[in-house]
Amino acid sequence: MNVAILGFGVVGSGVAEVIKNNCKSIEENSNVSLKVTRILDIRDFPESEYKDILTKSFDDILTDDSIDIVVETMGGVSPAFSFVSECLKKGKHVVSSNKELVATKGYELLALARENNVNFLFEASVGGGIPIIRPISRCLAGNKINEVAGILNGTSNFILTKMIVDGMSFDEALKLAQDKGYAEKDPTADVEGLDAMRKICILASLCFGSHVYPDGVYSEGISKITLEDVAYAASYDSVIKLIARAKKIGGDKALVMVSPCLVKNSSMLSGVNGVFNACLVRGDMVGDVLMYGQGAGSLATASAVVGDVIDCAANDKERKFFGWGDKKEGYLADYLDCETILYVRAESADKAAIEKAFGSVEYLTRENQPANEIAFITAAAKEKDLRCALEKAGINALSVIKVSDY
Ligand code: HSE
Question: Which secondary-structure segment (H or E) carries 374?
Answer without folding.
Answer: strand 373-377
